[in-house]
Amino acid sequence: MRAVAFGAIGADPSLVEVPTPVPGPGEVLVRVEAASVNGFDLATIGGMFQGIFEYKFPVVLGKDFAGTVEVTGEGVTRVAPGAAIFGVVAKPVLADGGFAEYLVIPEQGPWTTVPDGLELQKAAALGLAGAAAQTAIDALGLSSGETLLVSGATGGVGAYAVQLANDLGAVVIATARPGEEETFVRGLGARHVVDHTADLDAQVRQIAPDGVAAVLHLAGDGPQLAALRSAKGRLVSTLNFAPDESATAILAQPDPGTLDRLALAAAGGRLRVPVQRTYTLDEAPRAIGDFAAGTLGKLVVVTG
What we know:
304 residues; Rossmann fold; seven-stranded mixed beta sheet; alpha/beta
């Protein structure tokens, strides 16, 4: 089968031929329709997970996936062939990924069925970024009317977080450059926009003189952002920054329940899946390069 993989730490990914996987007992073979690019892919290529995960080269990239169940292994009861599913590739070894025509996943893994009304290409962009945003917003415990500063609002996680916070009634301040970025985050529900390339402190203090109730740290200077909280303000970070007891560092929790929540919200029109561009499988290396250069929302690779 065709897949996009890399053969050594730091090597450029490319389109290659690899054996089509065969599901064993308790496994599911998925015909992949689409996958999306995440920061996890860049970190994998750069070797950031050495010592955490084993690399089994060639490593196929793509943490997210969406597709159709082709075959189920012995003992699988959770799903049947023909079902549309999406989720996150979660294995102890870095080898398999969604940038491929087929993928084997464990039956008891972080995936779920795709509800009616949600396209597979959009489902492919929900998994990791959506789960990270939902985990972060849940951890913040926002109440209606509270002010939330989202630093890194233009990326995939930020785009979902702005919407989830807005849905709870929070007043969202999003970081974005003037122009296309500002238009993008306002369209997602941001009440205020601050330019992180200018005097961020002054802009935020003009909106919230006593500081913001909450900060979501997806990008930017952690200490600077922490100082913009009110006296009882809290902070959640996806970048392992937790300077005090009012701050929490989180990891995405893409369990089936969280994925169901996101999928139903997207299918019902309450959550916009911000796919900015799609690529064919042979264009996936370019998608990864475009992501590294900076983009708005999500980039999707169509594999089917």
